[in-house]
Amino acid sequence: MAGQDHDTRTGGGDVPGRPHARGGRAVQRDRAEDVDAYADEELTAGRRRRAFSPARAPWQWPDINECELREQNPDLRDLYPCDGICKNRLGGYDCRCKPGMKGDAIKGTCTEKLPLAAKVTVGIAAMIVVLVLMVMVHQLLKFRRFYEQNGGPVLKGVKNIRIYTRKQIKQMTNNYRRVIGEGHFGKVYLGTLKDKKQVAIKKSIKVDNHMKKEFTDEVIIQSAMRHKNIVMLIGCCLELDVPTLVYEFVARGSLYDVLFKCRDKILVGTRLWIAAGSAEGLTYMHSAGESTIRHGDVKSANILLDEKFTPKVSDFGTSKLLARGKDEMTELVIGDMSYIDPVYMEQGIVTQKSDVYGFGVVLIELITRRPATYDAERSYVANFVEAFVEKRGRSFIDNDITSEADINLLEMVGGVAVDCLKPNPEERQDMKQVEHRLLEIVAQSEDYSQKRNFQGDLSPAPDDVAFLKALGE
């Protein structure tokens, strides 16, 4: 029938003497019987016999199942042709092409709708779709496995942490386009959130399964760190073999870069502000929460500066939870050798006093503006300590500092550094004591009230002001 995929043709006449539609042509079947009556006739084996009856109108003639007849008697197939699906009806039969074919089933012209080339194309396309789906399912299962291995079920309930998808991280970084930091740990990329806020996305190098097991604890530690002098962890992506961390972006980069890659003069007031703020951040870390925390890799490269030169302690990749009053034994060398506590190197003992030692080296860098170096004799630290003990500390102070008052201030900072670097950890002050001593030095600075002069607002935080007021009471 026109407009349909399966053409249907009508055929068959039900009784002798009745016009018979065959392929669109009327065929008259002659009969010898009287038109007023006809005798019983054997039409096919098993077919019921019709009794002699008086003449009837065409619509009263008994129905003959042409489809059944042609199946039971092959000789009748020419009489009732159908090269498709035969369906009986009153007064004839319908014949249509089989599914997937088109044409005239009565005439035997049914052909497949799709040519061979089209079938091949469809088959290839179907295979590609199946392969793509298999790859997608494999990827989804892999991402799910990474998510679970990296502590997703635990971290999804942690306060202050947002879990990002792999796709979101890729969008944030514009397909990891801009690298803003790189080291032995991996790379740091600049990213942008939907609200246009910039973030730093840290993608670490591949680590072993043992370190992966510690990742959940590390993220929980960092998520609890909410302080103006600590870089804030915003979220993480767990759908990767190595988890990716999302931090707040700190505009000026590291203290190391400011000291040694930029030759702009740095006022003493700014150096004191950076020293005191960094000490405050470490103090907060050491005393935050119910458990004791140590950083493990304190160095100038891990102290970042914002646009106002406010220091922010960063990179907690080696931070550890320690039982209160206990030390940690480890055989793994962690951190930069130039800042590592000798006790840790010799005995494998890690404590918060190890952070104090590393901070003492940072103070030397602030005073001298010379980068820390490592050798077997630890001459960088040893020479500085020896000079200050022998009252020759001025020879190590940055040549840009010429004011007698400023030199005196840096000499006081040098005294703090020497106490941080004592060989016996028990003789070192804790970070809270170091912070207080540095704030006392800040209070003595002649330019304390003019710290905005060096490219930014360097005024102290409210809690520092309160402390300084308490000192004067």
Automatic annotation (TrEMBL):
Any GO molecular function: calcium ion binding
Gene3D superfamilies linked to this entry: Laminin, Phosphorylase Kinase, domain 1, Transferase(Phosphotransferase) domain 1
Keyword ATP-binding in record: yes
A single Gene Ontology CC term: plasma membrane
Membrane-spanning intervals of the chain: 116-137
The entry's keywords: ATP-binding, Disulfide bond, Kinase, Membrane, Nucleotide-binding, Serine/threonine-protein kinase, Transferase, Transmembrane, Transmembrane helix
GO biological process entries: cell surface receptor signaling pathway
Family, similarity comment: Belongs to the protein kinase superfamily.
Protein name in the entry: Protein kinase domain-containing protein
